[in-house]
Amino acid sequence: MSAADDSFGQEPESAVSLPNLRGSILASVSRSFYLSIRLLPKKLRDPVSLGYLLARASDTIADTTELPIELRTEKLRLL
């Protein structure tokens, strides 16, 4: 297990604010979604961005072969 796996599911050292979701995190996982999110009304950008990131995270957890199915299931329930 790598060092990244050791910290999986633990609280981050610093929380990320919702406005920053459309910054570094969203831009790093989907350039096309990041660029098109600005077309939404401002009040919808943060909740839609959060929903997208939750969907991406759950998909990544479900698809990985790096973790046993039991651990993946547990992490998905936590989301």
Summarize the structure.
The protein has helices at 3-6, 18-29, 31-36, 42-63, 69-78. It is an all-alpha fold and 79 residues long.
Global mean pLDDT: 80
Series of H and E elements: HHHHH
What integer value in Å does the Rg equal?
Answer: 14 Å
Regions with little confidence, pLDDT below 50 for 5+ residues: none
* Structural category: mainly alpha
Q: Please, how many helices? A: 5
Number of domains: 1
How many individual β-strands?
0
* Sheet with the most strands, sense and barrel status: none
What percent of the residues sit in helical stretches (DSSP H or I)? 55-70%
* Binned strand content: under 5%
What's the N-to-C terminus distance?
Answer: 22 Å
Q: Outline, from the CA principal axes?
A: elongated
Folded structure, characterized:
By secondary structure, the protein is an all-alpha fold. The chain has one domain. The chain contains five helices and no strands. The protein has helices spanning 3-6, 18-29, 31-36, 42-63, 69-78. It is elongated, with a radius of gyration of 14 Å. The mean pLDDT is 80.
SSE layout:
Layout (H helix, E strand, L loop, with lengths): L2 H4 L11 H12 L1 H6 L5 H22 L5 H10 L1
Distinctive features:
single chain, 79 residues, mainly alpha, elongated
